Amino acid sequence: MAGDTHAPAAAGATQQTGQQGTRKEAATRALADVPRVPGAKKPDPVLVADGVVRRFGGLTAVSVDHVEIQRGAITALIGPNGAGKTTFFNLLTGFDRPDEGKWSFDGTDLARVPAHKVARRGMVRTFQLTKALSRLTVLQNMLLGASGQKGESLLRAAFAGIWRSQEKANTERAMELLGRFKLDKKADDFAGSLSGGQRKLLEMARALMSDPQVVMLDEPMAGVNPALTQSLLGHVKDLREQGMTVLFVEHDMDMVRDISDWVVVMAQGKVVAEGPPDSVMADPAVIEAYLGGHHDVSLADEAAAAELEKEIEAEVEAEIAQDDAKDGHAR
Q: Higher model confidence: residue 68 or residue 83?
């Protein structure tokens, strides 16, 4: 009997694992023949941007000639600080307006579409600095993410019979997501009491309340306790397995290698490289200019980090000594 009890669960787990492998493999196959060049055309793009430019005074923060995001894949957007990644995110999601250019989501033009309407169409985002409402409970924060709520109308709000069943369904959906993100026991706590990592989880869970097609994550690992890192990684991968497209900004190259199907590199507002993680990170120009010469050293390895620090200090001291020598000769 014991064997019979566990057999269906084991079979289900095997089937789920097989499905996940198939989703990742499908993304890999779809991108296999895509040229490793900036602006490369994808076989099934869900998001396309053309000639998007954003200037702040005399500074051009974003100048993207052409970029496409493959449907059903996890795409990383990387580059140094000030490369224009977050500004580009803001433009695509309606939180800012470009000076020039156009972009479309699933074939629909999004130029001048405000952020709340972009979200309703199925493209949602999270922020580098979480936007949880601290004085509301975790569950109340989740309910804010549900779209098309009948009770939001002032007239309908007076008639509970109109919205009560929808409110119940939204609450059940919210609790299911909180359970998946291991936050269900925090449902009645104020969001302000959560840790930084838990707030990241809450923001990701809330984004899923609207059943989006595309989820855009701005530095999901920033400020997260290492104990929650693997949990967050698993949730990002799970988005792809549920059929969603993921575009995320991240500086952690270990994470980029682990979960990305495709990588887009930005520098000085432009897309300068594209390709699978290993291909992009093996590009000498990208390594030198955007990732640093020591990108292969895991920051989790304390011994390697200490050795790296010594190497950098030695290089700096050598440069100082060389400059002092030059100054001595000049005198």
A: 68
